Amino acid sequence: YHRLPINKYNESKITPISQKNVFVAIKVELDDNELDNIYDEAKKLAEDVCEKNPSGEVRTEERKLLSSFCGLIAEKVVKQLISEKLMLIKDCVKIKGANVSSENFNYESHNDIEIHHLLNGDMTTIEVRSSIPYMGSFDKVLNKEFDILGYYITSYKSNEPKKDYYFRVLFHNPGDYKNNRLKSAFNNKDTGINYFKNNVKVYFVGGCTLDDLENHGEPDDLKQKNAKYKVIRPITKGWDALEILEILEKDVLNKQK
Q1: 109: Cβ–Cβ under 8 A, 6 or more apart, which residues?
Q2: Taking the complete model, does pTM exceed 0.70, yes or no?
């Protein structure tokens, strides 16, 4: 992992949840063996990905495979970061992905992580949402173009349980308009992994709590017909990677009492 500090800028004069001037993302490095294993698992999982995206459009096979691949990476990254953060109480909690066997398994929208508190039976829920921005400036991605995505409703999903936390993972693929080269590369395992390894940078960028979303979020359809999201815009209005992990740690520790 590597820390990547980004200066906040505030053209719209928004009031950020955090008052820090620097927003810290965590850049993640994955080795060849990890990518190879994740691709194989994604190939199997893609068969169960929901056929439609939140706007109701049918996904291509390449899109479903790429969505599964990125979703597995996002889950792996977040679970690892949480595990390291909660290392001192690792015997008191169990961290697991929650929706791998779900009938509506859909990594393009989100994947869920649960922290089970073994001492009292309580549970903390985290929703991890990932996207693949292709614009060149990562500063602009965080400060203007992308959001922290919360709960949503769609034409085929009228209700979604609210989670305690919403985390954000980005796969920065600069210069690849609408990610066409990336999607095309996933027709083949070797070309897909090579393109990803050489062109895509993986970042855990932070998130928000459910209370943050309710108090500071706004509705948006994200240009997807029949979809309605609750979002915090832009990402830098929320908590950065280090801050949201600290907040989660304090929350989990308090629930052990």
Answers
A1: 50, 53, 54, 129, 152
A2: yes
Return the sign of the alpha-carbon dihedral for residues 235, 77, 4, 93. Answer: positive
Q: For 19-36, b where at least 16 C-beta lie within 10 A, e where not — what string?
A: eeeebbbbbbebeeeebe
Locate all alpha helices (DSSP H) within 101-162, ordered by sequence: 138-140
Residues whose CB is less than 8 angstroms from the CB of residue 190 and which lie 6 or more positions away in sequence, other chains included: none
Q: Could you read off the pLDDT of 36-75 as tens digits, one per residue?
A: 999 999 998 888 776 666 556 777 788 888 988 998 999 9
Phi, psi (rounded to 5 degrees) for 169 = -120, 135
SS3 179: helix
Reduced to 3 states (helix: H, G, I; strand: E, B; else coil), residue 15 is coil
Judged on CB neighbours under 10 Å (0-12, 13-18, 19+), 239 is: buried
